[in-house]
Every structure is written in C-alpha cells, then in structure tokens.
Amino acid sequence: MRILVAEDERAIVDDIRRSLEAQQYIVVTVFDGEEALFAGENEHFDLVILDLGLPKLDGLTVLRRWRLARRGMPVLILTARDDWRDKVDGMDSGADDYLTKPFRMEELLARVRALVRRASGQSSPVLSNGVLELDTRQRAVSFHGSPVQVTPLEYRLLAYLLHNAGTVMSQSQITESIYDQDVEHDSNALEVVVARLRRKLDNGVIETRRGQGYLIPAESA
C-alpha cells in the first residue's frame, strides 16, 4: 500500500514515515501544499495523510481540488486546530477521517488500517479468503491455519491482493502500490515475487490472468 504524507513539520514526518514503513507501507513525503496537490493529481496513492496548515497552499484547498478532479483516495487530515468548525469544514471538503495534534502514533496507524480496509470494502483487520489469512495488526500470514514466513515485499503483495480480493489487479497497479519508486527493480521482479509466494503457499492461491494481471479469489475452498 502506497501512502502520501503531506506535512511541513520534519520531525512529525520522520516519525510517521518510520512508523508506516515498519508496517510495510510505501511512504512518499511532501512538505508544502503545491507539492501535495501535484503528487495527489499525478500519482497513485492508496491513502493520504494531509496536514491542514501546509505552506504555499493550505490542506483544505488541496483536498477540495483533489475531489474536484475526482481523485478518490482516502484522506486522513492532521491538524493542530481543534475547533469543531474546522472538523466540519474538513469532512465537508472530502476528508475521510480527522486526527488532532498531538496524537499517539498507535492511533494514527489504527486509523490508517481502518481507512484502507474501508476503501476496499473490508471490515476486519484480519483479511481472509477462507484459506489464506493476513493480520494487518501483527503483519502475520497464515495458510490453512499454519503460519507462513514472508518477506516485507511478499507481505505487501499479499496485503494488496487480499484488500482487492476477487478483482484482477494489473501488474502496473500492483507495482505502483508495493514498490518504492526510488528503488530500481527488474522488469520481471513481480513475477519472481509471485513465484516465491506460490512455493510457500500453493500454486492456486495467486491466480494469473494472462494479459491482465493477478488476483487472489475472494473465497477458496
């Protein structure tokens, strides 16, 4: 899952980045509203953490422009403002959740997990298709009830496909969400990761749709 963090306080950005990356999210950071607007309009993100008090262009303006451009990614607002009117303005502008500074990182991570689940129609922090389970809180994977050791990249791939269970996801969609764009990777890197997971799980867990992409079935016997 790829997350944009738009925040001008460097210390907060560093804390959020470390915490999100420890949860196996791909994190992109920007420090002013103009950068945030451009990134949100031109790149794919599964979620955005957006500060209202950004320089150059305030967060509410950025959010309104995203929504006018029909950018539908979930947005979690961060702000030092605690007036209820600010919260109403944020929600009416298209925010999906609201967190007031100072905050505990555990609460931010819980809200991120909830927003990602909600965006993909999931209700439980444990993603499952009947035989494969992924606990988003513990970052643990099991198959037919037995734990499976996976690498961070393998975890991100399984999480992305399970969040979109039953839907064919193209290689470009998957690559955008599980790889850090600053890190180069071979053109067949995704196929290698899929092959490793099939050896650890079962050949039928991740299905290939030739010319379309990959999917994990919503339910498996």
Brief summary of the model shown:
Residues 124-218 bind DNA. The protein has 221 residues and is an alpha/beta fold. The protein has helices at 10-22, 33-42, 59-68, 84-92, 105-119, 152-163, 171-178, 189-200; strands spanning 2-6, 26-30, 47-51, 75-79, 97-100, 126-128, 132-135, 140-143, 146-148, 207-209, 213-215.
CATH superfamily of the largest domain: Response regulator
| CATH architecture classification name of the largest domain | 3-Layer(aba) Sandwich
Distance between the termini: 27 Å
The fraction of residues assigned to DSSP E strands is: 15-25%
- Oligomer status: single chain
Catalogue the unreliable spans.
none
Strand order of the largest sheet: 2-1-3-4-5
CATH secondary-structure class of the largest domain: Alpha Beta
Mean pLDDT: 90
General shape: elongated
The percent of residues in helical segments reads: 40-55%
**Gyration radius, to the nearest Å?**
18 Å
Largest sheet data: 5 strands, parallel
Question: Structural class of the secondary structure composition?
Answer: alpha/beta
Please give the number of β-strands.
11
Number of helices: 8
Secondary-structure blueprint:
Layout: E1 2-6, H1 10-22, E2 26-30, H2 33-42, E3 47-51, H3 59-68, E4 75-79, H4 84-92, E5 97-100, H5 105-119, E6 126-128, E7 132-135, E8 140-143, E9 146-148, H6 152-163, H7 171-178, H8 189-200, E10 207-209, E11 213-215
Parallel strand pairs: 1-2, 1-3, 3-4, 4-5
Antiparallel strand pairs: 6-7, 7-8, 8-9, 10-11
Helix pairs in contact: 2-3
